[in-house]
Amino acid sequence: MAAPVGPGGSSDKPYFFLSYAHTPRNDPSDPDPDLWVAKLYNDLCAHVLQMTTLPAGVRAGFMDRGMNLGEGWQESLAEALAHCRVFVPLYSPRYFRSEECGKEWYAFSQRAANHWALYDSPMGAIVPALWVPVPPNDLPGPAKQLQFNHADFGVDYAAEGFYGLIKLSYLKHEYERAVYRLAQRIVRVVEETKDTRNTGRQVDYRTLPSAFGPPGASRPLDVTVLACCDSEELPPGRGPDCYGPSQRDWNPYHPQSNRPLIEHAAHLARNLDYQVSIGLFEEELDRLLDTEPPTAPGVLLLDRWALRYPERLEKLRRFGQEHRPWISVLVPWNRADPESNGNDESLRSLAEQALAPSSAEDRNRRFIRNGVPSLEAFGEDLHHAVVRATRHYAAHAPAFPPAPEPDETRRERPRLRGPSPDAYGSAGPTLPPGPDTPNSTGTDHGSSEPDKAEGQDDREP
Known about the structure:
The protein has helices spanning about 35-50, 75-85, 100-120, 140-145, 155-165, 170-190, 260-270, 280-290, 310-320, 340, 345-355, 360-365, 375-395, 450-455, and strands at about 15-20, 60, 85-90, 125, 130, 220-225, 275-280, 300, 325-330, 365-370. The chain is α/β, with parallel strands linked by helices and about 450 residues long. The longest helix is centred in the last third of the chain and has 22 residues, at about 375-395.
């Protein structure tokens, strides 16, 4: 079996990672349906090699073509995603229905978000390419955010994509121009983002979520924060290093991180295809305690130091007394912070008393981890918190459309087919109930068999 196309060792950092949806064969005897994708990849590598000082024999990119599914294919993908400088998703209708492509997108985007939080500078970029054009309205949230102008590579390319340029012989010159310009863009991005610190740790590919939500769905998420701020007197024993004028400025992983935690959380959640609203817990409390059905799942970021203020402790107690399983609570707790470590036991006790659950079930639903120790662990725990909150939100959200209210004053319309069976005292046939509301977890995408067949990716054994 051929080795994966790409760098052979961990010291070789590919310029780009080509992410594409594998096209299934209709028959085992059919030729490889991804043969033309491999041509595009090889042409890109050839151009990048000419435009850079890469040594001879070193591939400029990574493509998973030829990988043996039984021999560490997931580890090879994870290693390439941890070191590539540019992520090149090859758009097609099948791409955004592929769970594997969604995992690759999420792995790179989470790595980029962590780099931004750590160093306040970009690490690389996502440079999309068109295999088959996808209508803008069909793109998931993470792709819509890119605002990439494909016409920069040529009008025919924007209309046909690389597949059309390859298959239509009269567009051969347009294909060559589009490939060349894509290679230029890849090299330019690498040159503009030379900061290679924290190239990324290799993740467990099997546990990654997909960055693409259910097709056509708008998925809201509320992220709120309860924290201290340096515009007021801080609790005894707490310094101002992790705070700013607003609670939104709370950065518990300072000095490792340079970004407010709520902004980092919103960035990560948008990478999971959520429409994120951020706010202050105290300002949103009345809405969160409303007896009406919830309008969105939520995540509360809790600074345990804020519970040293009696009024904030009381507000959290009010919240803790209510059954709100669609709101997960994350408690960041930087193990490298000596002030927090010295007060861990007393502040942990305050948080547990305020959020004392009425049952073990409520506790399991509410807490993901009581003390998230690092920025990297926060990204992982946030994903679990969002999935859990979304699952419970689906179980408690109002059905759509709502059932009509009975109207006793409404007159019955004339019947054109005679009286109903009820007119003779007979109960008519009982209609079957409608389908259950789908249980969306944020990563359960294309879970039914027909959907899976339509967008199936042959990377899974």
